[in-house]
Amino acid sequence: MDKAKIEEGVRLILEGAGEDLSREGLRETPARVARALEECLAGMERDAGELFKTSFDADCHDIVVVRDIPFFSLCEHHLLPFFGRAHVAYIPGAEGRVCGISKLARTVDVYSKRLQLQERLCSQVADAVDEALQPLGVLVVMEAEHLCMTMRGVRKPGAITTTSAVRGAFRNNATTRSEAMKLIFDGGRTTT
């Protein structure tokens, strides 16, 4: 990442907005923004496949779900944040091997720390899990608020965008997909 170019770009934006760059609160802003972008876009250079080098023989043949994984990303259209929760489910392959559950959250991090569209982000997470684990099925659901809708344009704070990416058994079997969605959205709780 070329932080000097980012700093120069931020200076131009601030000048274009009519700001005084010598003002105390803005003197270090270009460098702070460059450091913040370096952190927010840290996933650009990472390969999610590297996360899955280790798996475990668990003889597991049922749905594994990690819910409510917080994520933050930057919309590639406006460079404004969107943030929310990701839910990742998979059914281990025939051999019953599983990954460490933190790998699912880390996969969300790798892809969310890029300039993104939520739709692409959701698919990238599903594809990475599918490729790395070779499971019978993968289901990823993401719910997020986009500040480009909250603070500009339509100005609808609290509006949530929900996307899903469905692979394998979750795509081909409505009952299996329904079971996973129940686990995701109500934690598998039953009502009596």
Task: Please tell me about this protein's structure.
The chain is α+β, with helices and mostly antiparallel strands and about 190 residues long. It is about 40% helix and about 25% strand. It is built from 7 helices and 7 strands, in the order ααββββαβαβαβαα. The strands form 2 sheets. The protein has a 5-stranded mixed beta sheet, sandwiched between helices. β2 and β3 (about 80-90) form a beta hairpin. α1 (about 5-15) crosses α2 and α3 (about 100-110) packs across α4 (about 120-135). It is elongated and about 65 Å long. The N and C termini lie far apart (about 55 Å). The model has no long low-confidence stretch (mean pLDDT about 95).
Low-confidence stretches: none
Question: How is the quaternary structure best described?
Answer: single chain
Question: What is the overall shape?
Answer: elongated
**Over all CA atoms, what is the radius of gyration?**
20 Å
How many strand elements? Answer: 7
Number of helices: 7
Tell me the helix content: 25-40%
Straight-line N-to-C gap: 55 Å
